[in-house]
């Protein structure tokens, strides 16, 4: 018996696709980062203490007492009709005109990522994704054995010229990407947004090259300054699969997200969803629907915006005050994340155990690349700790970096 088979007796039986399934860096971190003495700037958990729990509780209680026989029953694979209509109202805030028939409700947007990958990707197919990209999407893509090709970003998001170059060089190698995966608003992990100009340009490039776009937008309504920008979907509804979620604007525990897709794609997604989960959880869907109907959900989003703005300010001013001059970072105007770049020679993954010893945690940049790059960067999130804890966390991190730079 070799070492691998002693650890897992079934190791020779797994399907080839499981080779891409490895524990994410975030999972490995969870155990240490949640110790109370560690200030975690690692996780992307919404600050749920800002939710009116009594109101949520009465929504849920009424649901059981008044509509229990429906709410606790199986439901449609595409999702509850009324909730899909309400989702269209939410999306209208970002310039999306869609019909409830175009919407499929999913188990968080994470399931929508899975469904889209499942229906489009054969092993070895190419997916274009920003550099860096969302770790959960990269895990999904890996589990279907996709080849992810990263496209550069800057402070205005994905760089259109780089997108054009990448598509062309793939084409000359006889490769055609299946889709472009992009997070245009308050990017996880980069903390930047795609400018309006670039939205038009990216839509145009994808039209020119007949490329599908997978637009992932969990944070679009959590901007701090202006009205939300129009979604990419609004620029190219015929070639965008749009993903939304109630995880950040309401609560992730309900696991209610959605996708809007061109008719044929949506049909395939519904079939794939039926095979995976029969139907999205009816109880959660009706709870979210009742919440949207009876509670001031737009005010709640404002409350979240104000809370996260204050925390973003705390993080940016702490970084400004305390970071060594060779360190740079992005300046988010919404969402949860700041992307920090270390001076050459420093390795954020190698440094993490020393940071945890100094009682601060972050996510190393390598988690956000499919190709192993990203070691000189790291992701900080400001959504969960209080402003005081954020400042103290940055103080600890700056101390670790100063020690590293002196070595
Ligand atoms: N996409 C992005 C960019 C995210 O940041 C997240 C959550 N961290 C998700 C998708 C998944 O969200 P959910 O499944 O909770 O809707």
From TrEMBL:
Q: What keywords appear on the UniProt entry?
A: Aminotransferase, Pyridoxal phosphate, Transferase
Q: Which Gene3D superfamilies match?
A: Aspartate Aminotransferase, domain 1, Type I PLP-dependent aspartate aminotransferase-like (Major domain)
Do you know which SUPFAM superfamilies this protein is assigned to? PLP-dependent transferases (SSF53383)
CDD domains assigned:
AAT_like
Task: Name the Gene Ontology biological process terms.
Answer: alpha-amino acid metabolic process
- Give all residue intervals belonging to the Aminotransferase class I/classII large domain: 58-397
GO terms (molecular function) for this protein are: pyridoxal phosphate binding; transaminase activity
Cofactor(s) listed: pyridoxal 5'-phosphate
Protein family per UniProt: Belongs to the class-I pyridoxal-phosphate-dependent aminotransferase family.
Its quaternary organisation is: Homodimer.
Name of the protein: GntR family transcriptional regulator
């Amino acid at each position: 018996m070799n070492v691998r088979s002693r650890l897992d007796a079934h190791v020779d039986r797994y399907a080839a696709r499981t080779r891409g399934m490895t524990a994410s860096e975030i999972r490995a971190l969870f155990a240490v980062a949640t110790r109370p003495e560690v200030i975690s700037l690692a996780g992307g958990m919404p600050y749920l203490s800002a939710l009116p729990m009594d109101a949520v509780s009465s929504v849920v209680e009424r649901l059981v007492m008044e509509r229990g026989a429906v709410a606790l029953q199986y439901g449609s694979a595409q999702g509850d009709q009324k909730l899909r209509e309400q989702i269209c109202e939410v999306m209208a805030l970002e310039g999306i005109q869609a019909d409830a028939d175009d919407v499929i409700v999913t188990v968080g947007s994470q399931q929508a990522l899975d469904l889209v990958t499942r229906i489009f990707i054969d092993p070895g197919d190419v997916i274009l994704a920003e550099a860096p990209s969302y770790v959960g999407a990269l895990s999904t893509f890996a589990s279907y054995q996709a080849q992810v090709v990263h496209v550069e970003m800057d402070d205005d998001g994905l760089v259109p010229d780089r997108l054009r170059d990448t598509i062309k060089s793939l084409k000359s190698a006889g490769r055609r990407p299946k889709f472009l995966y992009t997070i245009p608003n308050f990017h996880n992990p980069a903390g930047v947004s795609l400018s309006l100009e670039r939205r038009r340009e990216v839509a145009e490039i994808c039209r020119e090259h007949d490329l599908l776009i997978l637009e992932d937008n969990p944070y679009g309504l959590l901007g701090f300054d202006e009205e939300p920008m129009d979604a990419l979907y609004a620029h190219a509804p015929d070639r965008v699969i749009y993903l939304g979620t109630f995880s950040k604007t309401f609560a992730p525990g309900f696991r209610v997200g959605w996708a809007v897709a061109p008719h044929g794609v949506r049909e395939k997604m519904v079939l794939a969803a039926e095979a995976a989960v029969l139907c999205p959880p009816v109880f959660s869907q009706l709870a979210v629907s009742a919440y949207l109907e009876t509670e001031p959900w737009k005010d709640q989003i404002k409350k979240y915006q104000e809370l996260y703005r204050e925390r973003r300010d705390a993080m940016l001013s702490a970084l400004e005050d305390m970071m060594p001059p060779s360190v740079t970072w992005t300046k988010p105007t919404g969402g949860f994340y700041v992307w920090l770049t270390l001076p050459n020679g420093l390795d954020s993954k190698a440094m993490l155990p020393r940071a945890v010893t100094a009682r601060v945690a972050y996510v190393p940049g390598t988690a956000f690349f499919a190709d192993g790059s990203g070691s000189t960067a790291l992701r900080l999130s400001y959504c969960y700790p209080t402003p005081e804890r954020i400042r103290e966390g940055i103080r600890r991190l700056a101390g670790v970096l100063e020690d590293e730079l002196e070595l």
